[in-house]
Amino acid sequence: MIELGSVEEGSSLIEELIELTSQSVCRLEIKEHFNIIKEIGRGKYGRVLLVTHRCKGTPMALKVLPKASTKLQCFLREYCISLLLSCHPCIVGLFGIAFQSNEHYGFAQELVVGRDLFAIIQPRVGISECAVKRCAVQISSALEFIHQRGLVHRDIKPENILLLDNHCQRVKLADFGLTQRHGTFIRYISGTLPYMAPELCAMVLEEGQTEVKAPPLSVQPSLDTWAFAVLLFCILTGFFPWERCDDSDDFYEEFADWRRVPDTTSVPSQWKRFTPMCMEMFKRMLVLDASERCSVWEVKGYVGKDWVRAKDINGWVGENGEVGTRTPSPCRSSHSGE
Ligand SMILES: Nc1ncnc2c1ncn2[C@@H]1O[C@H](COP(=O)(O)OP(=O)(O)O)[C@@H](O)[C@H]1O
Ligand SMILES: [Mg+2]
């Protein structure tokens, strides 16, 4: 396994690996080399097939990306970054097989037999606090590994976290299709997800616009810190905290107001279910100013404490005795409706 060094070293290594891989992507027809058992997943960019290798019988998860909608360079980048990161125990493994057929680019991944994290979120309920904490520790360790190598995942959401069991004893981060180096500039994005930080939501190119008002955004690990916090909220509650981080979203506006003047504004109702220690963690992860957000590994320092308050008959009682009644949208897959 090649060890990535500093940001500069790491980036040139990725570029070199892309260059070398581009010369050796083999041509094959999927059905000639693999028995396709079934489709096990589908995302915004590709499909994942459960296959067995025709000669060896090895089960694998093939990620296939249609050539019609995927640039060769993007495929190579995703494959090479996935390969470099795949040695971490909480990141999906790779077999080192990259190929192209007439219609697809593809690569072979370790088959993760459980479902993804989204599949076990009980709508409007979430998953148990113990399972959330097990997941939090493992994802924080995977992200620390990624960030130390000068990269930012950029697509942290439950659908990209794969489970080896239903209780989150072992989980693996997947999908490096949007991963970029620290300091890469984003000029615009075309849509938002609830996991996106406010500085990223400001980069949306709305219909009819030709350019974004905000200056280009430098990709930083703080984007993953924000998304990780939103993910923790979702799996603890079964709800999104908001739909998008801009002033068109009442739930986000309420939260942002509270962050700006915490002493005079009361904690937004959907956050009242959390203990003061848990809110301390969320406050450090969800700082509006990206440069002041904490690092992902700081989450580990909070897992020894209670996160969710005991529930009384009316719901969660906040510090001032108010009861949380308003609720935003239940979590839905970002794949649905796209
Ligand atoms: N190695 C794997 N083993 C089992 N299921 C997987 C594996 N990789 C991905 N999946 C499933 O396939 C879905 C889509 O894969 P993903 O890599 O996220 O594609 P996209 O880039 O299109 O989002 C995931 O949400 C997950 O449910
Ligand atoms: Mg995905």
Automatic annotation (TrEMBL):
<keyword id="KW-0723">Serine/threonine-protein kinase</keyword>
<feature type="domain" description="Protein kinase">
    <location>
        <begin position="34"/>
        <end position="308"/>
    </location>
</feature>
<feature type="compositionally biased region" description="Polar residues">
    <location>
        <begin position="326"/>
        <end position="338"/>
    </location>
</feature>
<dbReference type="InterPro" id="IPR008271">
    <property type="entry name" value="Ser/Thr_kinase_AS"/>
</dbReference>
<comment type="similarity">
    <text>Belongs to the protein kinase superfamily.</text>
</comment>
<keyword id="KW-0808">Transferase</keyword>
<dbReference type="GO" id="GO:0004674">
    <property type="term" value="F:protein serine/threonine kinase activity"/>
</dbReference>
<protein>
    <submittedName>
        <fullName>Serine/threonine-protein kinase SBK1</fullName>
    </submittedName>
</protein>
<feature type="binding site">
    <location>
        <position position="63"/>
    </location>
    <ligand>
        <name>ATP</name>
    </ligand>
</feature>
<dbReference type="GO" id="GO:0005524">
    <property type="term" value="F:ATP binding"/>
</dbReference>
<keyword id="KW-0067">ATP-binding</keyword>
<dbReference type="InterPro" id="IPR011009">
    <property type="entry name" value="Kinase-like_dom_sf"/>
</dbReference>
<keyword id="KW-0418">Kinase</keyword>
<dbReference type="InterPro" id="IPR000719">
    <property type="entry name" value="Prot_kinase_dom"/>
</dbReference>
<dbReference type="InterPro" id="IPR017441">
    <property type="entry name" value="Protein_kinase_ATP_BS"/>
</dbReference>
<dbReference type="Pfam" id="PF00069">
    <property type="entry name" value="Pkinase"/>
</dbReference>
<keyword id="KW-0547">Nucleotide-binding</keyword>
<feature type="region of interest" description="Disordered">
    <location>
        <begin position="319"/>
        <end position="338"/>
    </location>
</feature>
